Here is the input.
Amino acid sequence: MTYKILTANRLDDGLVVYLGGAGWTANIDAAQQAHDDNAAAALDYRGKQAAMRNEVADPYLIDLDDEQPVRWRETIRANGPTVRADLGYQADKRIYQCTDTTNSITPSSANGSSSFANRSAAAWREKLPKTNSSHCA
Amino acid sequence: MNGLYLQLHAYMLRVAIPYGTLSSRQMRTLAHIARAYDKGYGHFTTRQNIQYNWPKLVDVPDLLDELVKVEMHALQTSGNCIRNVTADPYAGVAAGEVEDPRIYAEIIRQWSTLHPEFTFLPRKFKIALTGTDTDRAAVKLHDIGIAIIRDENGAVGFRIDVGGGQGRTPIIAETIRDFLPKQDLLPYLEAILRVYNMLGRRDNIYKARIKILVQSEGLERFTELVEEEFTHLKGGAVELPQAELDRIRAYFAAPRYETLDNGSKELESARQADEEFAAWVKTNVDTHKQPGYAIVNISLKPVGGIPGDASAEEMEAVADLADRYSFGEIRVTHEQNLTLPSVQQSELFSLWLGLKIHGLATANIGHAGDIIACPGLDYCNLANARSIPVAQAISRKFENIRRQHDIGRLTINISGCINACGHHHVGNIGLLGVEKNGEELYQITLGGRADENAEIGRIVGPAFSYDDVPGAVETVVETYLQQREDNDESFVDAYARLGATPFKEALYATR
Here is the structure.
C-alpha cells in the first residue's frame, strides 16, 4: 500500500532527514506515515513550519510502497551514493561489505532484521547487481 | 554567486579554478579542505572547477576563509552571472599558440567578477578562450567563445563566437566577429552582454540562454544590435590600455626553462625498455612549445574509477610532483583530468614512476577509458539517472589499454539529465540518462565532438536500460572497428563517412 512521509535536508549540515513522531530523524523507518490526504497535508504543513524556523531546507512529501521509496532517487537519498558504499547513511548501516580484492561491493547478508537497511539492501541487490566501487571502506 | 547548492545527500560547494590554473600550494589547500571539511575527496568538473560533496553549511565560512588564504574563492560558480572563465589547459605552453589565453581570461575575470550590470542576467553565462587552432576549451559550445588569432597582417586579435551551448537545446556557436582588435575585447563583450541583458527572455528558464536569443533574432540582426551597442562603448572606460595588458601579462610569464633540445636520450631508452611507459607517453604526453619539455596529462579515470574524483592524498601527490617536475604548476581540464604543463622530457620516466605509485598513470587520455561523466543521480538534485556507475561499467569493458589504443581516439560522455553537464551532446559516443516509469534509460548519440570541428551528436535510436547500455557502447565500438577504412580513421571520422545506419543495425538487430 502506498503512503507518504515527509523528507527534507537539515539546514546546518544538509543531511537527509525525515519527520518522525519525535521530530526530525535520519532514520526513514521512524518517519511518520500519512495514509490519507489530510494526514499528508498535516505533514506538509509541519515541514513548511520547520523550514520557516530554519530547521530544515526544501521539505517535501515522498511516496513509499511496501516500506520502500517509490522513486529510485529517494532510495539513493536514504542510503548514499551507489558508487561509494563508504558514504552516506549506508556506511553506518553497513548494508554493503567489500567481498573481494577487486573492491566489488555486494550487499551484506540479511540478518533477519526488518530494519530499513536490510530491506534497502534487497532493493539495491535487485537494481545494482553489477555496481562496483573503487572506494570500498 | 557562491556555488553552494543543496544536493541529494548534503550541500555541495563548487570552488572556482579560474581558467583551470592551479599552483601546487592551492592544490594542497584543496586537499586540506577535502580532508578537514569534506570526506577526503573532491570532484573536478567539466568546467575546470572542483566540487565538494559533503560540506556542512555551518563550516562553509571557515572553508571560504581557507580558500582566500591561497587567493581562491567560490564566486561565479552559480547564479545568473558571468561564470568562471575557462581556457585551454595547455595555455602558455602549447606549440603553435598565438598568445596565452589566460592573460585575457584573467582580464575577463577581473572585469566580470561582481560586475553590477551583469549580476542578474536572464541566465548563467559562460565564456571560454583558446589561443591555438586546436580547440581544447570547447569554445564553440559556450555563450561566448574566444579564439586568439592573427589577421593577414600579423596583428593579434580575437575571433568572437556567440550563442553556443548544450543543455536541452544544443547549439554550436556562430562567429559574430571574424577579427576583433585586442583593445576592443571588453567593450565588445560588454556590448554582447548588454544586448543579451536587455533582450534575453526572463519568462521561461528554458529559453533564457543567449543561444535562444541569437537563434530567435538571427545572427545578422543580433550582430547589428551588438555592433550598434559597441559604437557607444568603443574607446570607453573598459578599453584595454597597453600598460594594464602588460601588467597582467607579467603574471603569466613563462617559468625559467633550461635551454634543451628535443629528443632526450633518457626518454628514448625508457620508452624502449618499458612498454607500459611507452604507452603512457603515447597517450598522455603532448608537444610543448619549449624544446626539451613536454606537457603531461594525468588521467583521473583509472579503470573502474569515478571520473574526475581525486582523494586528498592524490591531490597532494600531484602537488608534490608538480613542485618537483613542473615548476609547481597544475592545470585542470574540462575532460576532468589534470595537466602538468612543463616537464623536462628527460624526467618523464621518473615522473611516470611517481604517478604510478599513486595510481595516477593510466594511459588513456582521449581514449575509451577517459570517460567524461557528470555526478548524476548519485549526487545531483537535478539528475534523472546515474552517470558514474555507467562510466565505471564502460571503463571496465575497455580496461585493456592495448585495446583502447587499437580503437584510437574516442570520447565517451555521459550526462544524468538534459542539463548536459557531462557534455553528452558532443561526445563521439554520448549517453543521456532519463527516467521512464521509474527505470533508468540511456539515449545514445553518435558523432558529437567538442573540438575545433564541433558537432552535436545525433540520437541513434531507442534508449537502452542501465544494464544494457555498457554492452551497447561496446557494440558501437565493435561496429566501428569492423567498418573503419584503416587504423588511422578515427571513430568520429568513420561515423561521418558511414552515417548512423551500420551502428543502428548493429545496435537494434536483435531487439
Notes: Chain B touches chain A through 31 residues (CB under 8 Å). Chain B has a mean pLDDT of 97. Chain B has 16 helices and 21 strands.
